[in-house]
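Entry 14: structure prediction run for DUF1761 domain-containing protein. Input pasted below.
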Amino acid sequence: METMGINYAAVAVASLMNLVLGGLWYSPLLFAKVWERSAGMTEGQLKRFNPAKVLTLTLVLSWVICLNLAFFLAAPGTDWQWGMTAGFLAGFGWAAMIFIVISLFEQRSLAYMLVHAGYITVYFTLAGLIIGAWQ
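Run finished. Output tokens:
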């Protein structure tokens, strides 16, 4: 059996990208107000945010996501283009679609679904790009 070539540095950078992109995506510069309204977040809830807990768990979960994606992209010949395409397909076609299905049953608004599904799609696309380019 051939050993798969996983670049753990690329996995780490792609995992950190989740924090960077999330910080921008959910900031006042982009979608903070839409997210707060559509999620029904109050000022009180936002003030109780525990950054150490949330960011640490986010980083661990991002590592799992990116390591999984890296296994799919470990084939010889993978480059940034295939990495980005595979990331998009996984993000949009799998992750965002199941998120929308769950949101439909929760009777969430279209704005809620679009903000989060957009983030999921962009994140997976960037993660695939990083992992594919750094193969």
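Notes: The chain has a mean pLDDT of 94. Will compare against the previous run tomorrow.
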